Amino acid sequence: MPPPTSRSVEAIARTAVLATTIRRKNIKKGLTFTVMIVGASGLGKSTFVNTLCESPVFPKKDYSNPEKAAIERTVAITPVTVDMEEDGIKLSLTIVDTPGFGDNINNEGNFLDILAYIERQYDDILAEESRIKRNPKFQDNRVHALLYFITPTGHSLREIDIEFMRRLGRRVNVIPVIAKADSMRPQELAAFKKKVMEDIAYYKIPIYNFPYDEEEDDDETIEENNELRALLPFSIVGSEEEVVLNGRRVRCRQYPWGVVEVDNSRHCDFSKLRYMLLSSHLQDLKEITHDFLYEQYRTEKLSREGDVDPDELADEEARTEAQYAKRQMEIAAAEAARGSMDQ
Ligand SMILES: Nc1nc2c(ncn2[C@@H]2O[C@H](COP(=O)(O)OP(=O)(O)OP(=O)(O)O)[C@@H](O)[C@H]2O)c(=O)[nH]1
Description:
Strand content: 15-25%
Pfam family, one: Septin
GO molecular function: GTP binding
Order of helices and strands: HEHHEEHEHEHHEEEEHHH
Distance between the termini: 61 Å
Bound molecules: guanosine-5'-triphosphate
Radius of gyration: 22 Å
GO biological process, one term: mitotic cytokinesis
Organism: Spizellomyces punctatus (strain DAOM BR117)
Family: Belongs to the TRAFAC class TrmE-Era-EngA-EngB-Septin-like GTPase superfamily. Septin GTPase family.
Number of domains: 2
């Protein structure tokens, strides 16, 4: 590489000053971030959200009455925004809870609805970008990370997990997590984590694996990313219950044999996941969403040609894509019709 000229050094310095100014402005204004929660029914997704936000974002369900519990289940894709403060920076966190799947023989509907939600946010940006006069109040609702809850079976990944993560990973940063990790012994958990990562590699599932650039990133970043990568899939325990242990208030799940602490990194990875998600890797997740995942969607969408009859396609993946495109057009048409009725 040729040595930098004084002009290029000046340009680099100017860019650095500009970046710092933008960062300072953002810090003052606060950050926005969106996380989607996906997984089978009853895996503790709502409890996790309440634990993450340290507030009852979703009401606690009454599982003592099976009929009531069935009614209280999450049945629609529900975005909720919570204002928080992380490391002195204001954070407007949007959590998108999704209905738990696994009860139906065919889960394709759940999958298509989740994918449609993610892509609709991309379409909104695409439409906004092509406007001559931008809407200053436009809200970017793109999903920056998707936490995929894996059932703590101890066996290999289930077919539905492989399919869901493989297909969603093309559109969003998928972070796999092991739900209800307190239901496994430490050795079992370690073996299960290894098995899950072997499956992820074998089936070429695109997940967010803390990418870094050996040439550009500093040693500290590389080391931190390697440490986080080694924790994948994050083991999590959720609880809204607090007890006093040795004079400290801790969030935990209590058992006759002892207590599993949510925030103790020897018990589970909750605190490390929370920190990377809402602090250390928040910006990276946003950048990958914008520079890579959205960009890829945009290119595909703009180069897609003509109308396709989904049922005539032999290839399963193409058929699903086309069915999805058709569904999205139906949703858009329904929304347009609703809009014209409102006027
Ligand atoms: N053992 C254990 N139980 C948990 C954990 N997190 C939640 N639970 C329990 O699991 C049950 C289901 O929790 P929810 O948070 O309602 O599950 P969900 O995934 O939101 O359920 P759906 O809305 O049906 O998809 C409740 O009884 C929770 O107390 C956990 O980390 N470990």
